[in-house]
Each structure stands twice: as C-alpha cells, then as structure tokens.
C-alpha cells in the first residue's frame, strides 16, 4: 500500500495546495527515497489522474456528493489504476480504499459507471459543445469559452494539439559542437527550419549530456523564428525583462557565443534563481542579472539598448502541454492583474530602447486580451513606436508552439 499512500499524498498536494506537478513529485520522491521504477509508476498514476480529472470527478460525484477530499483523491487513483495505468495490485488498492472508509457498494457503483472506457463522458452531452471539450480534453470551461470567442473553429485543433506531449526542439552551440557532429547523435532529427533539431531522446533534455554541457539549447520553433528575424550580434546591447523563466540567455549563447552582453531584469524570484544557476554553470560573464520589477529598470540600465525583450507574467497556456496539472493552476481571476502588468512592463521597458532599436513582446499564451489588445493599447500610449510584426503561433501549426510575439520599432527623433 506504500505506493498508493505516496501517490495519494502527492495528488492531494497538487490538487488542494496547488503545488506544481513536477515539484510535488520531486518532493515526494526525495521524502520517501523513491527510486527509478517506483518513481515512474508514481508519475504515471498521478499524471493519469490529472489528465482525466474532470471525467473522474464527474464519475465520483455520480456515486456520492458526500465524499471528502481525501476519499475523492483515493477514488481518482482507483480509476486511473483500474482503467489506464495498472501499476498497483487489486489487493493494494482495495486495502487503501478501506483505509479511507470508502464503502464497497460505492466502489462497485463506480466500477459499473466506468466499465466502458469509451463512454466515460456523460452520454447526454453534445459532441460539438464546450462541455464535451471540457471533459474530453480536460480544459477549464472559461478557457474554452475564451478560445471559442477568439479562435472560433480552430478551438478543437488547439485542444487536440495541447493534449499531445510537447515536442523538444534544440539549436546547436557551435562553439562546443560542430554542425557536422550532429550526425553522430541519432536522437537529433533535422527539421524544416534551418539549424533547428527535434530531440527524440529517451531521457528528458535536462538529463541528456548534450544539454547539460551546453552543446544543445532548447528552443521552440516560434522562438527560433523570432530570433532569426532580429539583427543580433555580440556588439549591440541587449536587455531582457522576464517574470517567467526563459532560456533566452542560453539561446543567445548558442547563437552569438558566450561573449555577448546582456542585462537581465528578473521580475520574480523563480526567474532570478533559475537564471542565476545558468549564468554560473555556463560562465556567462557578460550577462548582468538583476532581481527587481519593471518599475526599477532605470536602476539597472546605464545605456539604451538595441533590442529589449519583455516577457511578463501571463496565462502561460503553453503549460497545458507540459504540465498535466495546469488546468488546476490557471486562474481566470488573475487575468486583470496580468493585463495591467503586461502593459506597464512594456511601457517601462520602452524608455530604454535606442532610436531604431526593437522592443520585443513575447508571451506564451493564446488570448487576444493579452496579445493584440495589449499592443494596441501600447501604441496609443507610445506614438514613437511602430509595429513591425505581430504574430500568434498556435500549437497545431507548423511551428508547433504556443507563443505570441510583437516586434516594435523605436522610431528616430525628429529633433
């Protein structure tokens, strides 16, 4: 019963304390000294419970509305094990359910309701409805309504795409790995984008030696597109304001060598500490890191820059493909705060771009309020900027990315 108890404790943390999935699993494994095979089983059964949460929760509620949180979590794990990932013995599950004082009659009723895996969604729900997509793809209703409003017929393609595992793409750091050496690594597959590779290794990129050594750097096709559009070199000054951890500093290392110069203003503790580890690990001595918000950019920069990247906090819909618990953490009530902060971040950064330079806005979302609306409002505020390009990348298009970018050019003074 040990694995069930560990999975139960971990899933409780994720669902009711909103601990991120990867962190909760890591904490559980460290606390209980869980090794590779059990870790895999733990991750699978918890991930399955999260990916089917709305369907499982609906089934449990049909049995009884009186279950407490601990009992519901035990039943989610029971359904995962019984329907999709049988990593626990029937005896172990039965003993665990008894421990949580779940009646045998309720378990049998749940078995009857879930006997046919192809009919877990209530039959009275129309296949063309938002409610169907909510259950079928485990997406919050408010998000689906937003996408239906903004993207209409593309919504089904979006939710279908984000329910597939995220692909891993990489660029080569030519200072450390010669392009001709890439052929020695069968886990790297050339793509339709020049210099961009699809990684198909058996371990996560961060555990592969090529990524650990900085020979490869992860990047999405949309980020690759963005950087290829800009005039970047080691001489021109670059700045980056980020409230979400982003590997731009490593991507530039691969493209420009480790000799480039950049100022990074990290607006959150997570972005600061993750970036700091990278700068120390890869000896990026030309990169200055500051821990402060966008209102204090003036205290960090001594000169104006040619390219200023701005990545403020946003709904981060790209996380749907990466984190099975993201549906539980994305918050509609946070949106208004994001919008005001996004506009303020852009305006704060805009004062530090040289004439002819670029202000680059990048958010991993699919929400027109956070994208085109923000850019429209910014241009009304800052008449000295001109929109060069704005583009929404969607997870089902050839760029396989969830990202919005806007390149804004600072026009020269008429004085």
Please give the domain count: 2
Question: How would you classify the quaternary structure?
Answer: single chain
Looking at the structure, the CATH topology of the largest domain is Rossmann fold
**CATH H-level homologous superfamily name of the largest domain:** Vaccinia Virus protein VP39
Indicate the overall shape.
Answer: globular
For the secondary structure, the number of strands is 11
User: Overall mean pLDDT score?
Assistant: 95
Helix content: 40-55%
SS-derived structural category: alpha/beta
Radius of gyration: 24 Å
CATH level-1 class of the largest domain: Alpha Beta
Percent of residues in beta strands: 15-25%
SSE succession: HHHHHHHHHHEEEHEHEHEHEEHHHEHEE
Q: End-to-end distance, in Å?
A: 76 Å
3D architecture notes:
This protein is an alpha/beta fold and 415 residues long. The protein folds into two domains: 2-120, N-utilizing Substance Protein B Homolog, Chain A (Orthogonal Bundle), CATH 1.10.940; 221-410, Rossmann fold (3-Layer(aba) Sandwich), CATH 3.40.50.150. It contains 18 helices and eleven strands. It has helices spanning 2-16, 21-32, 36-51, 53-63, 69-83, 90-99, 104-113, 130-137, 141-151, 155-162, 209-212, 221-229, 248-256, 269-281, 319-322, 326-329, 335-350, 372-381, and strands spanning 168-172, 188-190, 196-199, 216-218, 238-242, 262-266, 287-291, 305-311, 353-363, 385-393, 403-410. The strands form two sheets. A seven-stranded mixed β-sheet has the order 7-6-5-8-9-11-10, sandwiched between helices. Helix 13 (248-256) links the parallel strand 5 and strand 6. Helix 1 packs across helix 5. The protein is globular, with a radius of gyration of 24 Å. The mean pLDDT is 95.
